[in-house]
């Protein structure tokens, strides 16, 4: 697959999303960008083992008060929906870790007594693992909001090549931020009641975004699961089924990506990439 | 002196509510226990910073002291900066807690770490 | 009242499976599912919903086309790219309200947004309080806080002294909202490098918020070397090791059928019972 943006996501955590995203990157047979967007708990580096070569802080703008102009009118605290400001006689207290950087306080202060200053919310780290250009975001512990950092990580995407994004688990706004503007969303699930439940939640988000998708069922056994039936009934392509395998589990536990432990698996991942290429360059089919 | 007590109801016979930022009402009394007014805690539903918003509410109405169960570290900042005395570990009804305050039986917190008396804390410091 | 919150940092360590087994083992408690983004506990407990409530997040902006004069000031001021052509995208809107303040003609209204639902249910193992956050909604922790609060009220009504909470994954606001003020945190981890990486961040988080924790390694025999590594991390940080549970295909089968492992014929049932006994002992000491 030549170019495009593939996001690997899953409603439920722990289905193998990161592992599968890494295997895809390793099977690409071309230079590829890998973006670890799970900024709260980035893990992909464990499998891809990049040589780190760059790091930059990412900041959000937060308020700072100019006391030569402030009259302590309290309007800034009044309008802040995130309670990131409190006005006491003679002082304005700011809580930058709660600030969502909406700009309301500095835009609306009647005395123009507030300016915006940068506050670090995390870092973007870059490295290389052979043909893989690795980028990840790491959120500073205690920070209220991760989408701005995810946005910054996605800012490094080079649209002329292939980019694979490892999304955070779940279906709330950090996941939406990661998925937005992707060409294809690969949903990873498992054949348990949890896998099925969370797959249907993830699909709701995918439908909101109107992006083509496919499902990988990880840790399958021989039985045709409810998950498979669900996908069939809802016309969602099951792009791959990866069997449960204790050796792969052990390899994963020690940071060895399944395609390295079991080279036959590379075929499975090449097939997934081919499917995605057909869908994104040919007729765009959405999940109904 | 204006004393605010975090409460589950509007009157002095209401139960004290444990969490400062998420209580339903603040019942204001004077040091003799006379009921002055009751404020509704409008920020009870805030996704975040509820304690800060509650602190702002009480600072705006010029409260001198607060009786409550526990206060988070963020809300402590504005309260202490404004010079409001904070008494935690309080339970029972509003009336009962004011009674204990009058007898000098309530402990004022000194610093951020003292939020909940008797709670076991991890040995290591913060990050 | 005591509250045990079970967290994992990394997803997929088996947290919910173990919590569902606790539900079967323990009497007189209220079960709480705080993983509102991808709630799973109910799948093992077959709840009968008794109460259903709507949950509203921060109000979101809506532009009244009748009043709007097309000046575009709102779009200029919106730092979340949520306004385009005088129309607000509810998915992108953060609810800051700046647009409503700058609009010269008062065309922007902040409207209550239905973000999810929460429930009080009855199960064969007692009461369960749980919730469902709508797709793409912000998970600030507000719904988590609400669910915990409601569970505490339920326990008081029934005169129960114990809450067992299934926590969310990660280290962000939802987890912070689930552990603040809890009596004890039980971290369920797995013997993988990813698991160890996330375990440390989770321990840091619990420490930051002053919540004592104990650790259990699930599927420990997949990699005994990593299990030993986890045990030494616990020793270094003075954190009690509460137990380990072996890998058993039965657990996967149980999860496929939506049954707590305790209800299946499996060797790990005893290990889970022992884990609960250790955890309960610790809870009583606090």
**Name of the CATH homologous superfamily of the largest domain in chain A:** P-loop containing nucleotide triphosphate hydrolases
CATH topology of chain B: Nucleotidyltransferase, domain 5
Tell me the number of structural domains of chain A. 2
Question: How helical, in percent, are the residues of chain B?
Answer: 10-25%
Give the distance, in angstroms, between the N- and C-terminal Cα atoms of chain B: 39 Å
Major sheet summary line of chain A: 9 strands, mixed
Name of the CATH class of chain B = Alpha Beta
Spatial ordering of strands, largest sheet of chain A = 3-6-7-2-8-1-9-10-11
The number of domains of chain B is 1
Query: What is the arithmetic mean of pLDDT of chain B?
Result: 84
Specify Rg of chain B, calculated over alpha carbons: 14 Å
**Based on DSSP secondary structure assignment, what is the total number of beta strands of chain B?**
5
Tell me what portion of residues of chain A adopts beta-strand conformation.
25-35%
CATH-defined topology of the largest domain in chain A: Rossmann fold
The two chains with the largest interface, and their residue counts, are: A-C, 56 and 58 residues
Count of runs of 4 or more consecutive helical residues of chain B: 3
Give the topology string of chain A: H per helix, E per strand: EHEHEHEEHEEHEHEHEHEHHH
Query: How do the strands of the widest beta sheet of chain B line up side by side?
Result: 3-2-1-4-5
Order of helices and strands of chain B: EEEHEHEH
Q: Name the poorly predicted regions of chain A.
A: none
Describe the fold and architecture.
The complex is a heterotrimer of chains A (288), B (127) and C (286). Helices cover 32% and strands 29% of the residues of chain A. Chain A has helices spanning 17-26, 45-48, 75-79, 104-108, 147-154, 173-179, 193-209, 226-233, 246-253, 258-261, 265-281, and strands at residues 4-9, 32-36, 51-65, 85-88, 91-94, 114-129, 132-139, 162-166, 184-189, 213-220, 238-243. By secondary structure, chain A is an alpha/beta fold. Chain B has 127 residues and is an alpha/beta fold. Chain B has helices at 50-60, 73-81, 94-102; strands spanning 3-7, 25-29, 35-40, 65-67, 85-87. Chain B starts with a strand and ends in a 25-residue tail after the last helix. Chain C has 286 residues and is of the alpha/beta class. Chain C contains 10 helices and 11 strands. In chain C, strand 6 and strand 7 form a beta hairpin. Chain C is elongated and about 70 Å long. At the A-C interface, helix 4, helix 6, helix 7 and helix 9 of A face helix 4, helix 7 and helix 9 of C.
């Amino acid at each position: 697959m030549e170019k495009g943006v593939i996001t690997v996501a899953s409603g439920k955590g722990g289905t193998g999303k990161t592992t599968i995203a890494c295997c895809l990157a390793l099977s690409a047979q071309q230079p590829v960008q890998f973006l670890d967007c799970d900024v709260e708990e980035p893990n992909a580096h464990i499998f891809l083992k990049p040589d780190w070569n760059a790091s930059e802080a990412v900041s959000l703008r937060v308020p700072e008060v100019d006391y030569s102009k402030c009259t302590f009118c309290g309007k800034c605290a009044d309008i802040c929906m995130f309670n990131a400001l409190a006005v006491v006689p003679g002082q304005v207290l700011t809580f930058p870790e709660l600030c969502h950087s909406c700009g309301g306080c500095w835009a609306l202060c009647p005395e123009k007594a507030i300016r915006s200053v940068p506050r670090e919310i995390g870092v973007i780290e870059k490295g290389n693992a052979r043909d893989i250009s690795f980028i990840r975001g790491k959120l500073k512990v205690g920070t209220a909001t991760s989408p701005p950092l995810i946005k910054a990580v996605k800012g490094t995407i080079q649209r002329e090549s292939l980019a694979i994004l490892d999304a955070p688990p779940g279906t709330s706004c950090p996941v939406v931020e990661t998925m937005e503007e992707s060409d294809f969303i690969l949903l990873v699930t498992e054949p348990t009641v949890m896998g099925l439940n969370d797959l249907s939640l993830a699909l709701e988000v995918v439908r909101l975004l109107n992006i083509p998708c496919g499902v990988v069922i990880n840790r399958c056994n021989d039985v045709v699961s409810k998950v498979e039936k669900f996908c069939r009934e809802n016309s969602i392509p099951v792009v791959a089924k990866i069997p449960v395998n204790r050796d792969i589990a052990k390899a994963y536990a020690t940071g060895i990506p399944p395609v390295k432990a079991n080279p036959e698996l590379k075929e499975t991942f090449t097939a997934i990439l081919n499917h995605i290429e057909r869908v994104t360059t040919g007729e765009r089919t959405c999940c109904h | 002196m204006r004393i605010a007590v975090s409460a589950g109801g509007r009157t002095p016979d209401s139960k004290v509510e444990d969490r400062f930022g998420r209580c339903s009402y603040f019942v204001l009394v004077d040091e003799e226990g006379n009921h002055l007014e009751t404020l509704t805690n409008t920020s009870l539903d805030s996704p975040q910073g509820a304690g800060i918003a509650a602190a702002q509410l009480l600072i705006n109405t010029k409260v001198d002291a607060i009786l409550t169960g526990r206060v988070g570290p963020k809300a402590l900042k504005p309260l202490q900066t404004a010079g409001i005395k904070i008494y935690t570990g309080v339970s029972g009804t509003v009336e009962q807690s004011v009674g204990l305050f009058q007898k000098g039986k309530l402990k004022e917190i000194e610093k951020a770490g003292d939020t909940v008396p008797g709670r076991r804390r991890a040995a290591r410091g913060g990050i | 009242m005591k509250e045990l919150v079970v967290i994992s940092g990394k997803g997929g360590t088996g947290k919910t499976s173990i919590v569902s087994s606790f539900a079967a083992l323990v009497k007189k408690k209220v079960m709480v599912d705080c993983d509102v983004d991808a709630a799973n506990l109910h799948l093992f407990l077959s709840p009968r919903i008794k109460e259903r409530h709507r949950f509203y997040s921060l109000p979101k902006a809506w532009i009244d086309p009748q009043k709007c004069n097309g000046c575009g000031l709102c779009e200029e001021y919106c730092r979340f790219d949520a306004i385009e052509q005088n129309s607000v995208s509810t998915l992108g809107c953060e609810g800051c309200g700046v647009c409503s303040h700058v609009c010269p003609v008062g065309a922007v209204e902040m409207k209550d947004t239905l973000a999810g639902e929460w429930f009080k249910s009855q199960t064969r193992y007692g009461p369960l309080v749980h919730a469902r956050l709508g797709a793409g909604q912000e998970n600030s922790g507000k719904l988590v806080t609400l669910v915990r609060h409601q569970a505490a009220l339920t326990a008081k009504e029934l005169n129960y002294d114990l809450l067992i909470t299934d926590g969310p994954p990660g280290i962000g606001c939802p987890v912070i909202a689930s552990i603040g003020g809890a009596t004890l945190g039980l971290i369920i981890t797995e013997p993988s490098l990813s698991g160890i990486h996330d375990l440390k961040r989770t321990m840091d988080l619990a420490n930051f918020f002053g919540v004592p924790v104990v650790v259990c390694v699930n599927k420990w025999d997949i990699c005994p070397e990593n299990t030993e590594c986890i045990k030494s991390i616990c020793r270094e940080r003075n954190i009690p090791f509460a137990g380990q549970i072996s890998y058993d295909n039965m657990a996967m089968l149980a999860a496929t059928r939506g049954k707590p492992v305790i209800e299946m014929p499996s060797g790990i049932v005893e290990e889970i019972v022992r884990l609960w006994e250790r955890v309960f002992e610790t809870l009583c000491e606090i």
